[in-house]
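Lab meeting, item 3. Inverse folding demo.
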């Protein structure tokens, strides 16, 4: 399954084999998009499907294998299903025949572990309605909605969708402004966007596009220039920009070119505040100065892409960090939401990209093992600013830093 390439809200469908998980997806989409069979275990690996839910908008539904699968292969399928919890914003737990035991309790424990809100759906109500005693008991014990439903005759589909909308965190589907609290109507925002070997042919990268749209949504003016044009542009520009945003890899040039009275930050840091684990980034970034010989650094990319000879995550950050620390460091780079190549405790630092291609919950869950283990985490832009000595200026638009304060 391709994972981590869509920032839409992700909804996981979980339950035992043959409880009708795939039928639920077909009912929600109004299409036969998932394979339905009376044979238990038809769904083997998590399968994603894009759809539109009224009142929520575009979402990704993830159909998972049964949590009661058996055998060595079945256990691997269960592990993949549980791993899907690291990517979802909400979950639907499908039960049938009033059956609810340790399978479901263990799954709810996993929901709680990853702080995933959920609904319980009693499917196949056309064969056996939910018992009022079971419904009242589950509702009291877990404090969530219990919906009696028939994927064959989905008469109360609107009720299910309404309940689902209430469960999904609003932040998962309602976009928050990236820079709305930093600018006012009519302001000019300068975007410094290098066009180099990594720039896609004929277009800008996604974070730049997202910021331009947000500038326009806030009734401001976007002024876009390459780093070589900034000095001449600022000499003749009036009014002066209220904010400058740079690609992180040209931070030193931007810092030198943009007057100190103009706030300066980067696209990556804006995304770090918008959808990353910003408080832990602030705590973790200064720990870059404490790296020792032999330390291993984990670099997390949110997507897969063509790797150039001057790739930001695979080449530049390792080079800058090694030069800054003066230490012999080791680096692992993991793309998308793939499994880590080694235990998280083997890393001294984790550096996450801006995450423009994935959801906030995916980033938070991606970093959770490191945060739980007390391993410092940071972000591409914040790490680059730190090693170039311009960290305080780069985060100043978002946090108040006291004079002489090193750890935030």
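The presenter then showed the designed sequence:
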């Amino acid at each position: 399954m391709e994972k981590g390439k869509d920032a839409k809200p992700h909804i996981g469908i979980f339950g035992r084999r043959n409880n009708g998980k795939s039928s639920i997806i077909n009912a929600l989409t109004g299409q036969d998009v998932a394979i339905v069979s009376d044979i238990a275990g038809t769904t083997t690996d998590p399968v994603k499907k894009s759809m539109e839910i009224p009142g929520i908008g575009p979402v990704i539904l993830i159909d998972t294998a049964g949590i009661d699968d058996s055998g060595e292969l079945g256990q691997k399928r269960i592990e993949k299903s549980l791993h899907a919890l690291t990517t979802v914003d909400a979950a639907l737990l499908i039960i049938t025949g009033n059956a609810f035991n340790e399978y479901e309790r263990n799954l709810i424990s996993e929901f709680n572990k990853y702080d995933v809100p959920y609904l319980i759906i009693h499917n196949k109500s056309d064969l056996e309605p939910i018992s009022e005693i079971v419904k009242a008991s589950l509702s009291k014990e877990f404090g969530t909605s219990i919906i009696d439903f028939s994927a064959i005759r989905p008469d109360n589909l609107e009720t299910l969708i309404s309940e689902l909308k209430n469960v999904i965190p609003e932040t998962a589907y309602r976009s928050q402004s990236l820079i709305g609290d930093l600018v006012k109507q009519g302001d000019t925002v300068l975007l410094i966007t290098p066009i180099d070997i990594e720039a896609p042919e004929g277009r800008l990268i996604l974070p730049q596009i997202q910021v331009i749209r947000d500038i326009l949504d806030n009734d401001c003016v976007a002024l876009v220039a390459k780093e070589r044009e900034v000095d001449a542009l600022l000499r003749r520009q009036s009014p002066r920009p209220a904010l400058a945003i740079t690609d992180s890899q040209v931070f030193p040039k931007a810092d030198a070119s943009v007057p100190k009275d103009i706030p300066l930050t980067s696209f990556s840091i804006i995304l770090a505040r918008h959808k990353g684990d910003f408080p832990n980034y602030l705590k973790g970034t200064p720990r870059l100065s404490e790296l020792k010989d032999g330390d291993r650094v984990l670099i997390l990319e949110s997507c897969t892409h063509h790797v150039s000879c001057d790739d930001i995550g695979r080449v530049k950050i390792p080079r800058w960090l090694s030069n800054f620390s003066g230490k012999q460091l080791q680096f692992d780079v993991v793309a998308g939401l793939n499994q880590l190549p080694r235990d998280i405790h083997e890393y001294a630092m984790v550096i996450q990209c801006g995450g423009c291609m994935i959801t906030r919950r995916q980033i938070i869950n991606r970093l959770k093992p490191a945060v739980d283990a007390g391993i410092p985490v940071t972000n591409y832009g914040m790490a680059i600013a730190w090693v170039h000595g311009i960290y305080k200026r780069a985060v100043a638009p978002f946090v108040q830093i006291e004079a002489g304060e090193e750890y935030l």
